[in-house]
Amino acid sequence: MTTRAGFIALIGEPNAGKSTLTNYMVGAKVSIVTHKVQTTRARIRGVAMDGDSQLIFVDTPGLFKPRRRLDRAMVAAAWGGAADADVIVLLIEAHRGVTEGVERILEGLADLPKGRKIALAINKIDRVEAPVLLALTKDMNDRFAFARTFMISAEKGYGIDELRTWLAAEVPEGPWLYPEDQIADLPMRMIAAEITREKLTLRLHQELPYQLTVETENWEERKDGSARIDQIVYVARDGHKGIILGHKGETIKAISKASREELTEFLGRPIHLFLQVKVRENWLEEKERYSEMGLNFKDGNA
Known about the structure:
With 302 residues, the chain is α/β, with parallel strands linked by helices. The protein folds into two domains: 4-170, P-loop containing nucleotide triphosphate hydrolases (Rossmann fold); 188-300, K homology (KH) domain (GMP Synthetase, Chain A, domain 3, 2-Layer Sandwich), CATH 3.30.300. Helix content is 36%, strand content 23%. It is built from nine helices and nine strands. The strands form two sheets. A six-stranded mixed β-sheet has the order 2-3-1-4-5-6, with helices on both faces. A three-stranded mixed β-sheet has the order 7-8-9. Helix 3 (100-110) links the parallel strand 4 and strand 5 (117-123). Residues 123-126 are annotated as: G4. This is GTPase Era. It comes from Antarctobacter heliothermus. Its main location: cytoplasm.
């Protein structure tokens, strides 16, 4: 049996569908999916099998114009993930077309070392008519020499099998890099923290989700097969703490309930989740926080 294994970097603007595509390929939720942009921070790897090929998806942060240290570190991580990958897939949204952000990404792709396979995946194809889709495909391929172009809907699963089959044939020959039944290389503590952060992001509005982080402080396995998970939500300002707690603690209770239910389903056993909210004014400038998110603190320097 000839086995193959390789890293596939999914790159694109925030909200292009990279996390949704990762989760669909892997068949489990390993990357948070929200309606808010820039929610993926760490380079989460989802592992999918296709025949004798192991596909390791590097779900990079969305590429955007950075303003803060965290933004700059996220963008550096995205390009680092692309540079290290065996295959790159650029995701763009069919209904948005060639935006200024897509143009910047194409410039960045042109600067990568030659010889790497780069495919284009036009996502959310159900939102446009066929003539618009064909015109966009021609426009993008006139701008860059993509190895292949795929028309997909990451949310509904259209075109994903064809993309997966192509990727399985393109990754290099070699032994599998992960056990066959492993779906992600992130420790469960971090996946649990990401799930809670997703619930916070969905519940809260405006800038606040980017001013908070979640850490799994304690994980206790219990004799009855359940687990107790203690997490801390760090916020940058005292006013943010009140927003997260909500009136009579209603907001934090709703977030905790939603996160607990998903963790219980994800892990297949009862979970007892306890959340605390703490103010840590300078967490966005703490080197340790970046390491925990898989980011390089130095990449955030202006």
